């Protein structure tokens, strides 16, 4: 966890306090059900919950001190709770194994992390949607291979991003369901010493599904799928970040990360406004993506479990979720405040002197009866002049002045082919598909 | 594509013929709709389908020869079709861009590949299920950290695998939906020169969803999710493969890859039956997993598209699906014919002289009123003797002969703690969860 | 292997013929030494080499047919050779194990692949060097964060690439040494049935080092290092490819991939020259990088060997080397013929009306006794005017006309601060460091 | 950074104090040279070093507080130093850019990290060497595919590990040289405002090489190679860790991670000694390996630099080096104290009733004039009996009693074929190769 790339809510989820609180809830719910089943006295759960109702502080150093002796984190925690609650606490953990607590706790943590990330995505989607409608008909040049192609609108770019992050949202919901399972099944998953109804009870109370079959642990293909999904979401962040970085290039300058009016540019160069936030997002995406790999390597544990996954998860559990939370929030801020320059977009669009419309003219000539070969030659010879003028000449004017073209198309007909609106006639359709309105 | 790791059905999907056939279907369906919309003569589509009804061979070398001149694969194909169909063919591709054909074709190929993989998974699941019920109550030692823990059954191991691959199946269905979309939206996705209803028509005919918003291409987050899912499935293959490899180790030998009775072992050493199929699967899993990464790096294309994703997909499209298809089929064969040795399982289970039951005795002693400390000491001193005998002594017999233990528990009570069935009382519950029966 | 991304020389290395020829050489050299040591008759090696001197064709289908029966590739090959050579051939392979042949063969293949790649790098370096000197003093704007910073020369960009690929060359030489080892040490590497001098002899004859200690196989950390190095080289290819793609963007257009004068642009749009080669290189780099991972996962083979590495190497052995060879050659072609536009570079450099020189003016003012705060204010107010004019105004002219500035600096002094040569005074130094001249 | 997987010396390297100290040294050395060159007064450097000689504490919170205002880390630091040193400090950083400080500092940090890792490797090598000689002739079964093959010695296993980590050491020295370079070249690497001799001076003082050509930053292919090398080293750690995990499996139990005599096993099961340290190392290896990827993705920065690499390095700089340092030290501890059980090794070796020697008998029979087919049949029929007896019968005794075999070989000759020493006759040769003695 890198403090500068971390936000408090997500970070808190991975603090010892949070973990111990979840451990307590698991143990208390289990004890409750064990009481109902007559395995332990019903008073045990009551004692636990009564103490819990006092909202006791978790004394992490005290627990750590016990662990330093017992060399076992769950036992250390149970010992500390017993010191607080008294004799009734000895009934906790009956028939359970440490992994029951640890794995179910991880499920709760990852599910809560997913909830935060879903909230992040909702905020991002909202912002993107606003900018999409704001610029629904703001013309800008579409580029393939980094080269001018045909006109699009900035709103369409935003609509694409919206659709992409809406997909990410759907994926994250599925990924959350993958890891939100509860396993309380004992040393090798056979329920030899604990009734499956305890598992069902704890699962219900914690909002988890029951793990149908566990070994000692919850199977790690679930976590692999979860972290792989985060990697895909990070890749979508990278895509939008790189779009902004491109738009902010000095020669393009169609949009910029927000820069307050009074803010001082780098020294005396007012053009030196760097897209540092989106560059940062590009790097963060690389990290989240990298974490998918060890998660996949974690799947093939030996037999009923080995503990090689544990160290990996100590890294990637916090690192992937905290980084992605930060990145989504940062991206939301970038898009929210993005400075968009429609005039510059139009200027760039016109930069090629109307060449982006050459295809429409070509088509019109053939429809007006000119052979395809001649049509091509007429357009091409004028296009080349525009190109060689570096956009100083206008293709429309040259075409109007070309006798061969003029013989086939009137000046008005030619002018109509340079109408931007022609390209935007389906923007409503696309928006309806993406936003449902 | 490595021939020895490829099966014909999946490989055929990636052959030039298959691709050209899909291209034709896309173009013909589009022409059909363009005819309906009055953009081209209705006779155009008829001419195409009439020719198609003759089941014409695709002359790949002829198309390649045209491409060598035109330097453009889609134009080469259209030219060749026009040569076959005649004049009416000139109406094909009206208002479309090459990527409309290429990306929609890839969607069809990946969707069909997913169908094959789903079929593979069904076959694997069926085989695992059969072996699970066959060995539902075959006792075997459960191992955590590679060390004997408590008893499980071999059927439970199979049930775990079944549940895992059932999850893989669900994931693959979702991944298939991710990539099964159709985009016919023109040069930068604005439908400037083609009606969105063409896209809808082609999508419906090919069994695809409509891509709500495309640029020039279908967004690559879809493909990233698809290949990441294949990577997770591969990791589950690796897990089961490694389980078999472990079981086949000389010292364990609880199961073996099939070896026909007459088959000659490596030279004169009959024990030298190597788990080469599952070792092979371990390696193949590494490859499929590796392909997830470039797929994620493909997401951040520049602006409305760059073509950097294309070369990556030429590799991983075939390589990931062909390899995974082969691996699933190979794994199915391994599990189908796996030689399972229940006697050896029991022998290994007993190897520690009953130490795996020590916890139950410990619990029984405390329940019989012995203090936890004393209980532990009584069990431990006998357990150590068994351990030092390398499993030659029997814990049960030693405990019966231990006066302190005998004072608390009768011989029958002690013997009951060594009852394997105790561990299997929830196997029915687990099977019901996993198999629904 | 994707034919369109493959070149004949490297591909041939991975053909069955090439492999079988290396196998023969290994076996024949080994037999020769065994003859010297008196283990087999000296006539055996003579018979082998005599046959070999006839330059016999390798009948791959015949060998495959034998393998179909024996299920063992090395035995099939030996059988076929015996059929050709006659009785003396039975002394081949004495005391050896298949892996001795397979692993040593792989070493030869990878070493030869490395030689081809080194040759590729030499060609690339030569081309980069030529372009570097050609444009040693061609001014162009340096960009940090995609934003104009200060002037550099295009030759410096090439010098950076040269230095980077020279490092890649050094790395590849080290990587070649990693994998160029010979192991002929028998079933578990103990030389139980073969004299170590056989290994030494074969190593010497094949230009390999002796593997100091092998198990059944050559340790795979060597191969991991080899493929990781290829991944790093691929990343450097990506860097230069992305530089070209940026320079070719419509708004920048400082350089372009070669486009023959007569070549037709995409339809009627002459500006539509896409950097498809470098986009392709970007994708290829992703693949070569991806192959580093399974190579690293191959290291941890079980005990004296398992065969999980083998399938991985069947993919990445050819795929990584063939792809990288192709990519290096393609990049060489791109740089060799790159269209460089110095006028456009100068135009872009001037685009900001001289703002890139503002820092030097600032410094000059402070050195002329103006306070830092005032200096900043004077420069900043003029810089803002230039910025707002979108480069139409000239910073130099505005500064000359600013009374506060003029009070401190003469017009000549101001003009001197806009001298590009100031920035290039160390270009000779840098070139001397990089090229040694 | 995960505290439980971190050691103080390496962690300290990445603390703010350490970073600020290196910054100071860079600035002070640069100022010194600038003084010599007459660019700044020589008194400036003196003032800096005089202050430094007082061994001043670095007030990190104060520097952070300044950064909160200036939004620039290097300026904040310079400001704080100026507050301490006084007026002379204003000459610091003349003509330099922040990256000059940041990148050179990273070079120092990574070089020092490499030194710690090299020291770790030396300690590991020393321990492995000791165990290798201790068990030079301790017989143990060699296993291919997890299946018994032929005898090796435990010392040979250690020798293999020694050779592998010796290679890792060589690689790390090369990787250290990759990143140990100094760049003080100004805003875009042209030395426009700073003399290259300053760079040379600082490099020499800090023990770095001069970066021949930098942009604004040191090129990231260097760092990619560094982190890729760490990934390979981690993979070798994984290999040895997995060897220990295999040896400790209940059924194998040829070695165990250290377990103090008085230490309590998991509950009452003395066999439950889990190889948790090596399982942990397996997971840590996955992490270090994963970090190689974003390092490679960092190479292709845009033009003269973008800052996307920076966030990646904030993670992997500390995480990769701290984790690898911890892992190497942990592995050293594991090997140092590894409990090795020669008796169990021998017992396992004999487990197959001597089948591992069957090949030698086969060869002896053919050398005694028996046809290959008959030899095989004689050995095979006895081997099968041994195999079916699960190692209860002895192959040697059966062969002696087989009339066909006895007709060809005397009892002594047969017995000689079961001599383990036969397999170890080249151990001295191998040790001489690996250890030079």
Automatic annotation (TrEMBL), chains A, B, C, D:
Lineage top rank: taxon: Bacteria
Domain named Adenylosuccinate lyase C-terminal: residues: 353-435
Pathway entry: Purine metabolism; AMP biosynthesis via de novo pathway; AMP from IMP: step 2/2; Purine metabolism; IMP biosynthesis via de novo pathway; 5-amino-1-(5-phospho-D-ribosyl)imidazole-4-carboxamide from 5-amino-1-(5-phospho-D-ribosyl)imidazole-4-carboxylate: step 2/2
Keyword Lyase: yes
GO molecular function: (S)-2-(5-amino-1-(5-phospho-D-ribosyl)imidazole-4-carboxamido) succinate lyase (fumarate-forming) activity; N6-(1,2-dicarboxyethyl)AMP AMP-lyase (fumarate-forming) activity
Gene3D superfamilies recorded: Fumarase/aspartase (C-terminal domain), Fumarase/aspartase (Central domain), Fumarase/aspartase (N-terminal domain)
GO cellular component, as recorded: cytosol
Membership in a protein family: Belongs to the lyase 1 family. Adenylosuccinate lyase subfamily.
Protein name: Adenylosuccinate lyase
